Amino acid sequence: NPEPATMYEYAFGDAAAALLVSSENRVMEIVDHVSRTEDLIGPWRKAKDDFVRQCAGKYDELAGSTYNVGKVIKDIAAKTKVDLSKLGKAVIYGSDPRSPAKLGKQNGIPPKVVCDNLFQILGDTGTTQVFMTLIASIKKVKDDEQILLVGYGDGADAILLKVLDKQKVKDLKRTRRGYMINSATAIAGASSTSFV
Question: Is the pLDDT of residue 81 over 70?
């Protein structure tokens, strides 16, 4: 539960995502990936606690996400020899709406290719955020476009994807790709649902 009148009350989101990984009918391929783990205490909650607790947010940002995300971005670039300035899209985890572009820029990724992390719509959904952002971002792709996917949590992961067939990706919209957003509107308290 988020503590009332804190940023957590605004930011906590709840979501799920699933990806189909197969060696048949491929539309994108995983070029390569890197991962790292980091024992860093970020937000936590003990069994008896009513609300989530956190150490200094700036420490968590600098020693946690900024450091680990930056490290895996540099590692995937070195491992794959990808030119980060020529990525088609970059999907980067962010605990707020601005941090993905900031982290991208700090690591040589042009802000225009960093995808909106859906924070304004869904809040911070944790692990699922990058997958939901990826699903939303592949509405328009190009053949051979490279997409960098970067997640964060107890370390970080970076996956470099390559679009094999843009038409097949577009066809997924009708057959397999989709996401649903349920959000309670603050004004009316009604439920709003969008399908893509």
Answer: yes
